[in-house]
Write a structure and sequence with these properties.
alpha/beta; 9 helices; 2 domains; five-stranded mixed sheet; six-stranded mixed sheet; 253 residues; globular; D-Maltodextrin-Binding Protein, domain 2; Solute-binding_3/MltF_N; signal
Length: 253
């Protein structure tokens, strides 16, 4: 009996050691024989990330590919709702967030950010025949469409008397604007320009609600990955590759 018990204990200890050897690293995970790094995003935010067939493409994706290349791993992209990205990062389901995410003090409490890589703003979108909404002061007591969990969502919540309608994607808010279900939409400037370029029924007001900076988010304490991302961003800017991406995605027209 003692021999049997000793044998069982030895087996359990061996299994425990094997399990520990397979734990996920903070910057990459195992998929078969390939090491991968998982990017979390919301592919409803052109030109930063968007669907092209079965693939996710965009400005952020190009940067993420360079990060994976530097680390010598394969890039895997997980497309999810924007407001689910930080919880997924904290839970270890993804390794970093590249989703046109603005740096805010509130988000800094939950994630660490890379250096900023793009300056952005929140803008107001209305229908072209709307002459009553000319600036932020005219949004009081209005029905405003926003993308859930974005800084535009947070900004709209502070407008006096406003009814804020949250959507999972920016284009859904634009559709409700066209259909007269909301009075205006508050959205990040570049996606707003993208939607306006494809839709002659809407316009972007000249005034900007905020000035923001996009950065890549990683799990708290993962300095190794932050350093790698910052190194990639610096290399891309020094080589001119960053400027080429800006031309490709923002000045192609």
């Amino acid at each position: 009996m003692k021999k049997l018990m000793c044998l069982m204990i030895s087996i359990m200890m061996f299994i425990g050691l094997v399990g520990c050897g397979q734990s996920k690293n903070d910057t990459q995970s195992s998929a078969g024989d390939k090491a991968v790094i998982v990017m979390g995003t919301n592919a409803e935010f052109p030109p930063f990330e968007y669907r092209e067939g079965d693939n996710v493409e965009g400005f952020d994706v190009e940067i993420a590919k360079k990060v994976a290349e530097k680390l010598g791993v394969e890039l895997q992209i997980e497309d999810m709702l924007f407001d689910g990205l930080i919880p997924a990062l904290e839970a270890g389901k993804i390794d970093f967030i590249a989703a046109g995410m603005s740096v805010t003090e509130e988000r800094k409490q939950n994630v660490d950010f890379s250096n900023g890589y793009y300056e952005a703003s929140q803008v107001i979108i209305v229908t072209k025949d709307n002459d009553t909404i000319k600036g932020p002061e005219d949004l009081k007591n209005k029905k405003i469409g926003v993308q859930l969990g974005t800084t535009g969502d947070a900004e709209a919540q502070n407008i006096e008397g406003a009814e804020v309608v949250q959507f999972n994607a920016g284009f859904a808010a634009i559709m409700d604007l066209q259909n007269g279900k909301v009075d205006a939409v508050v959205l990040d400037s570049e996606p707003a320009k993208n939607f306006a370029a494809q839709n002659d029924q809407i316009k972007i007001l000249d005034v900007e609600l905020t000035q923001e900076e996009y950065a890549i988010a990683v799990k708290k304490g993962n300095t190794e990955l932050v350093d790698a991302i910052n190194s990639v961003l610096e290399e891309m800017k020094n080589s001119g590759e960053y400027d080429e991406l800006v031309k490709k995605y923002f000045t192609a027209e």
